[in-house]
Amino acid sequence: MPIFDPATLNPGVRPREVLSWAGYDFANSGYTTVVLTAVFNAYFVSVVTNGADWGTLAWTVTLAVSNAAVMIAMPMIGAYADLHARKQWLLRLSTIGCVLSTAALALVGRGDVAIAVIAIVISNFFFQVGVSLIGAFLPEIARPSALGKVSGWGWSFGYLGGLATLLLCFGYVTWATGQGRPAEHYVPVTMLITAAIFAVAALPTLFILKERAAPQPHNSFGVARDPLSRLITTLWHVGRYRDFARLLLCGAFYQAGVAVVIALAAIYAQQVMNFSVLQTMLLVIIVNITAAIGAFAFGYVQDALGHKRALALTLLLWIAMTMIASIATTPALFWVSANLAGLAMGSSQSAGRAMVGVFAPLPRLAEFYGLWTLSVQVAAIAGPLTYGAVVYLTNNNHRLGMMITGAFFVVGLLLIASIDIDRGRRAAADDAA
After folding, report:
1. Most-buried pick from 7, 18, 236, 291 (CB within 10 A)?
2. Torsional class of 172: left (φ above 0), alpha (ψ -120 to 50), beta (otherwise)
3. What φ, ψ does residue 216 adopt, rounded to 5°?
4. Residue 223: which pLDDT band, with cuts at 50, 70 and 90?
5. Using one digit for the tens of pLDDT, what is the confidence trace for 327-336?
6. Alpha carbons 110 and 29: distance in angstroms, whole number
7. Are 274 and 328 in contact (CB under 8 A)?
8. 395 phi, psi to nearest 5 deg
9. What CA–CA distance (Å, rounded) separates 337 from 322?
């Protein structure tokens, strides 16, 4: 089947629109790969905080503050976007905000903790808003039977974007270290590279992807009260969307584990496995290839097996990954766990986004994706903070932190059993009708 078989797309959606939609995942993935996963997080702990014993905890608290802001704001932003048909406009605003604040990270040197914290809080906030908004376009462009594979195209394309950005940074860091340059020189340059690629690669999305929603009738309460009234109505009638609510709870647990891996993978590699910066970057490069393969292939698996079974399979991969990583004493075994994480990362993220599309009524796409973002942000606060607290209280016992991370995936796997896909789909259809 061709990738852009018309049977996968809604009427009137052209292939170039799907490419531009997936292109946003390509554009923004450099931020998570370079800033949150491979380079800046480890730089923050080892250089910005001068290797202080509170460095890991400070990093997790910084992310928690940013994610809390997203958690509070995103449901309102989503409801506003639906009411006024402003998803594309808000996506442009969030992109500009993330690009500029990522570039500001180039100003951070040794001891500049305040500047680093402020820039990370702002850049991560705008990044997460953009992720939620681009996800809300998915049910507009893909048919219900193809949500899994189209979501997988985006995630796999995204990992290729993260890979491309990291490869450019890897090339520069290799040259800089060969010249004897310190991390204070080459890490800021990688932040500028990441911001520039995000800005350029996002342009097709911001000018080709169409806003198909129309402004909806609403009371004249103003910019804030209208979306708030709408959101309260949704939450008041949450029993009508019980399976979506269960997905939110399931997502809050398993995404907590995913957040730990994204935020602390490089720190774990350097602190526990004694990887150098270049070794860590090479590890993340290979993992991004694995993740791209996993996201693309699992999209088809998800549509074939069903959303529920596919997500459960990815959580089994995550559980295996955390068990292996927590006992790994050799680089070879750690590489095995890292590539399992890659396969699970792409597939679990894609599966969650597609399941939201199944449960979201068409008039409330951005609102429901905003609620999903709220769930993810709760996870992004709880997961890394739990890990950081465990490491701090156990004299830097990262292995115990990784074992506890595995428990998040176990709980998520148990919660999947209560979700009824067909019942949730019917509730969305009834609401839209």
Report:
1. 291
2. alpha
3. -105, 150
4. very low
5. 999 989 999 9
6. 26
7. no
8. 60, 55
9. 7
At 249, the pLDDT band (50, 70, 90 cuts) reads very high
Give the mean pLDDT of 168-193: 93
Task: Give the number of residues written for the chain.
Answer: 433
Helix (H) or strand (E) holding 84: helix 55-84
CATH number (3.40.630.10, 1.20.1250.20, 2.60.410.10, 3.40.50.1970) of 11-210+227-432 reads 1.20.1250.20
The model's pLDDT over 64-106, given as tens digits with 9 standing for 90+, comes to 899 889 888 887 888 788 888 899 999 999 999 999 999 999 9
Q: Are 188 and 390 in contact (CB under 8 A)?
A: no
pLDDT tens digit string along 269-280? 888 898 887 888
Please report how the helices 15-30 and 87-104 are oriented relative to each other, as an axis angle in degrees rounded to 10. 30
Domain range annotation of the chain: 11-210+227-432
Cα angle 120, 96, 284; round to 5: 50
